[in-house]
Design a protein that fits this description.
5-stranded antiparallel beta sheet, Uridine Diphospho-n-acetylenolpyruvylglucosamine Reductase, domain 3, alpha+beta, Alpha-Beta Plaits, single chain, 4-stranded antiparallel beta sheet, 362 residues
Amino acid sequence: MNAVLRPRSEAELAALIAGAPGPLRVTGGGTRGLGGAGRELSVAELTGITLHEPGALTMVARAGTPVAQIEAALAAEGQHLPWEPGDARALTGLSAEPTIGAVIATNSSGPRRVVAGAARDFLLGVRFVDGMGNVVANGGRVMKNVTGLDLSRLMAGAHGTLGVLSEVSFKVLPRPRATLTLGFCGLDPARAVAAMARALGSACSVSGAAHLPETGETWLRLEGTAESVAARAGKLALLLRDHGSAQEVAADWEAVRDGRALAGAGAVWRLALTPTAGPGVIARLPEGARWFLDWGGGRLWVGAAAGMDLRGALGAIPGHATRLTGPGPGRFHPEPEGVAALTRALRARFDPRGILNPGLFD
């Protein structure tokens, strides 16, 4: 068995890719269990925070830097990663450390994305090595408008198929001083989606909205100063009084972020939908499937039997379905032909040999 390739510098990474005789399976910490052909190339040794300017709300880190290290450094300055990157270990059962490069490469974003944006929206710049071994730098350390191709945001969500990240720079935000979650009990999916939509569309600045059928709760998160949170909670409870009595609850938003309610399922799928479509899709789920709603109904998490073709079972849906764990058909939803053609052209440009995570999107 070939040993894992573990470059310790960007130059070494470039040399390994340039000299690779065949496919490479690119990984960060290795927590997501993304399989694929080729020899494993891990960036986990490219570690270190190279710049943190708290006053400018910016940070630069090498791709293999553990997310936990970044979060600790930010917490010391009263800051955080506002897009709430997920941790896949509860679902995959793997014990490695999530890395910031993998967060960007997968565009990993949690419940706050519905109002704050995704990882790519906070990305300022990247350094990466393309499929020919060339080092490419794009973006900068301050947010600015760009013309032409924005490679930084293009790399977010490319899963290492266009290049292997070596360094990323991103914007951070002050950590909220107070957090409060209002909970409603007993709402069916349609009423829960209606309540979440009304809350997110209000002036109460709701930063998270989830519906958990296993506990029968619907959660709405408020963040900010203690005085502001308390005032907005009162207004929100009054606004939603037709949906029941709101109570402050001890909510675990990290569990929502990571899909922990579905741990142990044979396969876990995540569906991105128009929120109002959620109840209809839920009604069509196969018998025995477990589920919950995030993003006010825009993200439906489903735990199903291993090997099940959930896309086939559901038929056409107003969105797309991604298999996060477990065996089964293609992990990613097939792209429309126009998008697929653009994707092929980009890969041909940045990885003409087709060696970086080949087949991952097939």
